[in-house]
């Protein structure tokens, strides 16, 4: 499936024409191969293993990420106790019993206890977040709270693991129904803030051009043998045909340059994460 067009179409660090990183609102197939190539690092380990298996078997279009996640965590809904959930899903083995951890009954806790007992609370949060894929805001509302702040505190207190940033958006973007909702909201925002969005895209586009120019130049500087070969070709070939002659004669050089660009882009990403 494809997610809908909007103004946000950024391709930062794009050095491989076969893998284009786009914002979630672009017209891009959100199948398992795309997810495996571009967003693999934000998938839960259980989902990573299944996605990798399906992609390597050529079955990247057999199921959406959303349905795959629901399938892999469906058994959680059948768990009757927290111990059963912890034993069935090792990623939940560190989750604590809420009734053993929460001693002080704050106003938020008292509101929650009107909906569900502390004894069942930890398992309830796991089911709602991981099996039913509810947002923290949705869970908070269901438990009678004003916002997600109380649920976020509770989740951390009892060590309920959460998704990596953007995983929920990726899940819903892979699903037709949720994607339509995301697209409509994005389009509505774009319509109301047209000039701001346009200016942001212009700025990011210029930054992207400058970044890709830097990556190319850095890669070129690190490959003196390719530069030397181009210099030799330039003696007998018109200037506007020299690169065509270079790649046509030495196709392995094109692959080597592309790999070097990917390596430099990875270095930049790693450097940005450390800041």
Which helices and strands appear, and what pairs or packs with what?
Blueprint: H1 32-38, H2 45-56, H3 65-72, H4 82-88, H5 98-101, H6 107-113, H7 118-131, H8 136-142, H9 149-157, H10 167-173, H11 176-192, H12 194-221, H13 224-234, H14 242-249, H15 251-274
Helix pairs in contact: 1-2, 2-3, 8-9, 12-15, 13-14, 14-15
Work out the number of β strands. Answer: 0
Low-confidence stretches: 1-27
Helix fraction bin: 55-70%
- The radius of gyration computed from the alpha-carbon positions, rounded to a whole number of angstroms, is 25 Å
Tell me what you see in this structure.
There is one protein chain. By secondary structure, this protein is mainly α. Among the domains are: 85 residues, no CATH class; 81 residues, no CATH class. It is built from 15 helices and no strands. Helix 14 packs across helix 15. The protein is elongated, with a radius of gyration of 25 Å. The two termini are 36 Å apart. The relative contact order is 0.11.
